[in-house]
Amino acid sequence: LSLHDALPISLDKWFGKKLKYKLLYRATEENYSSNTFHSKVDEYKNTIIFIKDINNFIYGGFTTKTWDGNKLYKSDKNAILFNLDKEKYYDVNKSDHAIFCDKELLAAFGDGDLILGPKSIESSFPQSYGNKDIKDNELTMGFNKLSPVEMEVFQLS
Length: 157
Prior knowledge:
It is a single chain. The protein has helices spanning 12-15, 34-41; strands at residues 21-26, 47-53, 58-63, 72-74, 80-83, 88-91, 99-101, 107-109, 114-117, 120-122, 145-146, 148-156. By secondary structure, the protein is mostly beta strands. The mean pLDDT is 92.
């Protein structure tokens, strides 16, 4: 069972269309390998990442950009972060820092808003996403360091 199959809400309404998902990477099958993540995901645009943490919360992010490159930010005015338990999404507010590509990490959104490392999750949300009315680490339900149970990356079409 995929994380997106068990979603508490339909992302179709957020994106305004019926979505099709193509699985690119499942962390538990790849032992959370950043090398495998980049070999399977880097070339694809329009990717959505779902993370389920040790508290069974599901959140993640979407970008229209590719994850290739190393130690560089990419601009994406359409990027979002989301928390499915809160049924909320957060627009990027510093679009020139929408994602950070780093071959040692799996993925990173913003200026530390959501950092997915091998077997780790860190968050200093809100930095590049959300607005001033958002509580610190609202995205990750108040936690700034967590362990993932699963992470999946899909290409959306």
